[in-house]
């Protein structure tokens, strides 16, 4: 059975929507990520509302279950900051709020994405990091820890399972 960590690595490299067609089905029609649950959190805006409508398709194609938490902006910031600062494991994927970018990245609470992006086994040759807004690609610590997934200085990030260390 595929492990959650494998799916998280793939999601970090490709982005949820872009990767669905490339890995949706395993051998004999089995779903490659059956039994995997991803805990995703972002604050509530129009973009997460749009993503929410695609989750059933993503889950049906992959077998993965997505818990998609979208609290109000101040509630999200408080919960995410507390969870990350205490090295909790409630979230697998978070949206880095612009006001917390330096705090969350420079504290080492998010996993650098460089190794996932550079790995051809995890990242399709067609995927190009430069398709994202250039202003969001500037690394905070010399490593790529985030990329802008939609305009407005909001950055999507991957939080590593606690077993990984840098």
Attribute tags:
alpha/beta; 166 residues; 5 strands
Walk me through this protein's architecture.
By secondary structure, this protein is of the alpha/beta class. It has six helices and five strands, in the order ααβαβαβααββ. The chain has helices spanning 4-14, 16-23, 46-62, 73-85, 101-106, 114-118; strands at 37-41, 65-69, 93-96, 147-150, 154-158. A five-stranded mixed sheet has the order 2-1-3-5-4. Helix 3 (46-62) links the parallel strand 1 (37-41) and strand 2. The longest helix has 17 residues, at 46-62. It is globular, with a radius of gyration of 15 Å. The protein starts with a helix and ends in an 8-residue tail after the last strand.
Brief digest:
This protein is of the alpha/beta class and 166 residues long. Helix content is 36%, strand content 14%.
What's the pLDDT, averaged over the residues? 75
In which order are the strands of the major sheet placed?
2-1-3-5-4
In N-to-C order, the SSE pattern is HHEHEHEHHEE
Helix content range: 25-40%
Radius of gyration: 15 Å
Continuous helix count: 6
How much of the polypeptide forms β-strand, as a percent range? 5-15%
Low-confidence stretches: 16-27, 151-166
User: Could you tell me how far the N terminus lies from the C terminus, measured between alpha carbons in angstroms?
Assistant: 27 Å
The number of distinct β-strands equals 5
Biggest sheet descriptor: 5 strands, mixed
Counting helices, strands and paired strands, the structural category is: alpha/beta
Instruction: Give the overall form.
Output: globular
